[in-house]
Amino acid sequence: MTGSRTTGLVPALIFIALVVAAVASLGTPLITSVATSFHVSLGSAQWTLTVALLSGAVATPVLGRLGAGPHRRATILATLAIVVAGSALTVLPLPFAWLLAGRAAQGVGLGLTALMMGVARDHLPEERGAAVIALISVVSIIGAGVGYPLAALLAELGGVRAAYGLGLVVTAAALLTAWRSMPEAPEGRSARVDVAGAVVLAAALLLVLFLAGERELWSRHLAVAVGLAVVAVVLLCVWAVIELRSATPLVDVRAVRHPAVAGANLAMFAGGIGMYLLLTLITRYAQTPPGAGYGFGLTTFVAGLVLIPFSVLGFVAGKLTPRVRARVSAPLLLAGSAVVVGGGFGLFAARRSDLAELFVAMGVLGFGVGGFSAAMPGVILAVTPKSETSSAMSFNYVVRSVGYSLGSALGGLILATGTAPGHLFPDDSAYTTAALAGIGAMAITTLTSLALARRHTSETTP
């Protein structure tokens, strides 16, 4: 695939990855508006975000395997059609349950990121493909920074339905773009999907992400939470056995056990916890009213603007990383990016009395996340066959989703612990404690990445 078709393919891949990420994140700024509009509790409204993450985590490995087969184009189009249908449900004047169903359908689109990477690796020259894959990885994260302020502004101007209307428009545009631009997969690919493995993995992920999001379950019904956690671990072990015995596994567990892939996924898990933790800390701190003794009392829209440095510098880092990659190994870039994110935590822990300081911390976070996301595919794909690109990267994104969910839960737990009885907001010191926990997560990420870098050096040195 060359010439003008290649030129048109690249922006299509980037656009689709950006759209599905932005639409899945629409639940974040609209939680309060949903609670008010549908007359439900904030806990129930929180599920408009959680259900999208859940469906995305479950759908990602399945779509990754389908994307590795001969029907990748049909898979992409069908998935986007589901996302468009879900977007329509969020706009129509239907009860709250239908809104949740629509958000679940929108979340399925998160599984398309890995498929976009597979298309890029199959149909672009190697060097160009690597750069585009890195950029896809970046926009899949900064999409939240793009969707947040736009959704918040539309919610303030026209209500929650208007905000979700944005999702319907851009997902319809993404479907049209995919129909016009997505090529067929190369011939000779297997079309079989490990259904048993998909069902068991879906059940395990549902439990893991449910437990991460239900903090009250741990505080009020600890025995039940521990029991469900044990069941989740058992299901993951059963899934691994199924995959090892399957001729066409959902995820090639043997490849995942490769030291480079296993190390990259561990770094992604710990890094995901830290990255999402800082993102949630800063946005929550910015919206806390000054009456709490800190915070700026920003509206949802203005708080969304705090994400602009995150998105802009994340994109800049994503564009720079392939150039730096020519001189520095991908694992070393992971380590350096993790240190940058840790620096963002340090800035937030030390200085947050001025709004400008939050912008700086968010910009540092964005630059670190952008570099980390752009470098990650290089580590995994260096030891992954082309035909397994979608499957390998989909597993990495499942790991990222779990890390993000745990990061959000960790932040909520620390802030809840730092909230005195009878008080609505946590003590300011709780934010410092959460930031220090984030520094710990990024330290683990850095050490894991450095170990990968040392292994990479030893394997490439004659």
UniProtKB/TrEMBL annotation:
Q: Which Pfam families match?
A: MFS_1
Cite the entry's keywords alphabetically: Membrane, Transmembrane, Transmembrane helix
List GO molecular-function terms, semicolon-separated.
Answer: transmembrane transporter activity
Assigned GO CC terms: plasma membrane
Q: How does it sit in the membrane?
A: Multi-pass membrane protein
Indicate where this protein is primarily found: membrane
Residue ranges constituting the Major facilitator superfamily (MFS) profile domain according to the UniProt record: 1-458
Q: Transmembrane residues, as ranges?
A: 12-32, 44-64, 76-98, 104-120, 132-155, 161-179, 191-212, 218-242, 263-282, 294-316, 328-348, 360-383, 395-418, 430-453
InterPro entries according to UniProt: MFS, MFS_dom, MFS_trans_sf
Where found in the cell? Cell membrane
**SUPFAM superfamilies recorded:** MFS general substrate transporter
> What is this protein identified as?
Major Facilitator Superfamily protein
**Biological classification of the source:** Bacteria, Bacillati, Actinomycetota, Actinomycetes, Pseudonocardiales
